[in-house]
Amino acid sequence: MHRSASRLTRVLACAAVVPVVLAAAGCSSDSGKSSGTESGKKSTASSSAKPSSKASAALEKVAFAKLPDPCKAIASKTIDSVVPEAKEKNGTAAKSNDLANRASCSWNGLQTDGVKGSQYRWLSVSLVRYDSHASLGSGDKRAEEQYNKQIELAKTVEGAHDVKVEQAGGIGDQGSSVAYGVKKDVDFSNTTVVVRTHNVVVTLDYNGAAYEGAGAPDQAKLLQDAIASARDAVNAVDAANKGDAAPEQGPSGSASPSGSATPSGSASPQQ
Question: For the whole model, what pTM was predicted?
Answer without folding.
Answer: 0.71
